[in-house]
């Protein structure tokens, strides 16, 4: 959806207006989250959003999980971390999203009108490991907005934030073009391991 918005005709007519409105509003929320995260890190308020361009590329995915006759044998989405900077997720009332917490899968139950914000690999405080399980009663719908889309920010290089480095806090990862990071992460697939360890210095 950003930096180049889709042509209206590229969005199915029945959801066109909703998708356009939702994208506009959710980018404001994403921008605000990035400002708050910058402040929390002791950086200038616009550091992540403006200087690093973390909100420039935005992808929107609408996920549909059909009900499954044998939920114990299937997953909706396998164990993974999101690749971009942050993901803002809105889920319906069905539930199924789980995150790894202290080595265990923990449910993230839907809360009416609440959004879930996931830290992704590109931000890496510690990107959240998650998956979606399925059920045999009803289908589930979720919408995810990921900020930091490597396919639209091709020429940008990302690495440790220089302002946060010191002798006591040396860099852990090397820099990489965001396009290369996305390409390699997708190529590897959602197997529960992020591509980040490959960048360790
Ligand atoms: O459907 C969900 O709740 C999460 C989907 C997800 O993790 C993803 O699309 O990356
Ligand atoms: Fe995800």
UniProtKB/TrEMBL annotation:
The keyword Hydrolase does not apply. InterPro entries: IPNS-like_FE2OG_OXY (IPR044861), IPNS-like_sf (IPR027443), Oxoglu/Fe-dep_dioxygenase_dom (IPR005123), Plant_2OG-oxidoreductases (IPR050295). Belongs to the iron/ascorbate-dependent oxidoreductase family. This is Fe2OG dioxygenase domain-containing protein. The keyword Iron applies. Coiled coil: none annotated. Residues 54-150 form the Fe2OG dioxygenase domain. GO terms for molecular function: L-ascorbic acid binding; metal ion binding; oxidoreductase activity. PROSITE patterns: FE2OG_OXY. Keywords: Iron, Metal-binding, Oxidoreductase, Vitamin C. It comes from Linum tenue.
